[in-house]
Structures are given as structure tokens and as C-alpha cells.
Amino acid sequence: MKKTFKCEVDCANCAAKMEDAVKKVEGVMNARVNFMTQKFSLEADDDIFDSVFEKAVAACKKVEPDCEIEA
């Protein structure tokens, strides 16, 4: 399953760091954080998507504590 969410991120460098962190989360097939469009895309298996999404958001918050990802 692939879903795209609205994501507030402050700079392109932070977006790249967030994307790298999310790609390291177990269960993530692919992830993309786009600073220009303020979008966050996550791809993971359907049966574990919700738990992977929670871990991905936590990984983003470690890099950029004030980022907002709207589910």
C-alpha cells in the first residue's frame, strides 16, 4: 500500500534527512519527503501499514521535532 500525506517541513535538507531516517524503519518499502510540495509518501505492506506509519512519524520527529504529518 502506498499513501501520501500532507507534511510540514522547514527546509530541503531536513526533508532529505527525514526521508533517509524513514527508509531505515523496518517494514518500509519506499518513502519520499518532498519539501517543495510539502508531501510525505510512504509505501509498506497493507497488514502492517499503520504500525509502520507510526514508526515513520517517530523517525521524522527525531530529525525535525516540529514537523507535522497529517494522517
Instruction: Name the poorly predicted regions.
Output: none
Number of strands: 4
Mean of all residue-level pLDDT scores = 96
Quickly give the CATH architecture: 2-Layer Sandwich
Give the class-level CATH name: Alpha Beta
Give the helix tally.
2
Helix/strand/pairing class, anyone? alpha+beta
Shape, principal axes of CA atoms: globular
- How much of the sequence lies in strands comes to 25-35%
Order of helices and strands: EHEEHE
Strand order of the largest sheet: 2-3-1-4
The major pleated sheet works out as: 4 strands, antiparallel
| Measured distance between first and last alpha carbons | 14 Å
Oligomeric grouping of the chains: single chain
In helices, the fraction of residues equals 25-40%
Kindly provide the radius of gyration, computed on alpha-carbon positions and rounded to a whole number of angstroms: 11 Å
> In the residues, how many domains can be counted?
1
At the fold tier of CATH, the topology name is Alpha-Beta Plaits
Structural features, described:
A hairpin with a 4-residue loop joins strand 2 (28-34) and strand 3. The chain is α+β, with helices and mostly antiparallel strands and 71 residues long. The chain is built from two helices and four strands; from the N terminus they run E-H-E-E-H-E. Strands 2-3-1-4 form a four-stranded antiparallel sheet. The radius of gyration is 11 Å and the shape is globular. Helix 1 (12-23) crosses helix 2 (49-63). The model has no long low-confidence stretch (mean pLDDT 96). The chain has helices at residues 12-23, 49-63, and strands spanning 2-8, 28-34, 39-44, 68-70.
